[in-house]
Amino acid sequence: MARAGLTTERVTEAAAELADAVGFENVTVAALARSFGVKEPSLYSHVKNLKDLRERVALLAAGEMADRIAAAVAGRSGVDALAAFANAYRDYALTHPGRYAATQVRHDPAVVAASPAFARHVELTHAMLRAYRLEEPDLTDAGRLLRSSFHGYVTLETNGVFTHTREIRASWERGVAALHFLLENWSAASVRAGNV
C-alpha cells in the first residue's frame, strides 16, 4: 500500500478496525504497519507511539459511541430513553468489541479531560438521569451503576458466559426494566440505605 495514502485519521481508523478484528490488546504499531504493507517508522510521522495510537482509538470509539447513544435517545425520556441508551451501548459494544474495549481502559487523565467525546458520554448520561429527578451526588452514583451494569452484561455476553436457554436479549430487557424501577425509586432507596 502506498505510503502517501497514510494520514493520522486513516492510521487511527485502521487501528480501530484491527482492534475489532484481533482485540484491542493485540493492536501494536508493528501489526498496524503490516496491515498497511509498510515499515513501522512510516507510522511514526502520524502517531507518537503505541500509547498515542491506543488513545486515538479510544477517542475515536468514544465519539462513535456517543453519536449512537445521542441519536438513540433523541426525543425520548424516562424508561424509553434508558432503554434506547442501554440498547445503543450494548449494540456498539457487540458490533465493535475492540473499539469498545479501548474505551474501557484507563487512559491519560489529561487526554480524557480534553476529549469532547468522553465529556459527551457524561453529559448524555446525566441528561437522561435528570428525567428521574436526580442531582449530584446521585447523578454520579447512578451513572456509575448504569455503566457497571451495562459493561458487566456485555462483557459476560461477549465472553459467551451466558449458557442458560433463556434468550440473552430477554434478560437484558428485564435488567433494563429493573434499572428503570430502581432509578424511579432512587431517593426512597437512598433513605432506606441510610444514604451510605
From TrEMBL:
Q: Which spans of this chain does the record mark as coiled coil? A: none
Instruction: Provide the protein name.
Output: Transcriptional regulator
> Which controlled-vocabulary keywords does the entry list?
DNA-binding, Transcription, Transcription regulation
What the entry lists under Pfam families is as follows: TetR_C_33, TetR_N
Under SUPFAM superfamilies, the record lists: Homeodomain-like, Tetracyclin repressor-like, C-terminal domain
Signal sequence range:
none
Q: Which residues bind DNA?
A: 28-47
PROSITE patterns noted in UniProt: HTH_TETR_2
Q: Which InterPro entries match?
A: Homeodomain-like_sf, HTH-type_TetR-like_transc_reg, HTH_TetR, MT1864/Rv1816-like_C, Tet_transcr_reg_TetR-rel_C_sf
Per its UniProt record, what PANTHER family does this chain match? HTH-TYPE TRANSCRIPTIONAL REGULATOR BETI (PTHR30055:SF234), HTH-TYPE TRANSCRIPTIONAL REGULATOR RUTR (PTHR30055)
Q: Where's the HTH tetR-type domain?
A: 5-65
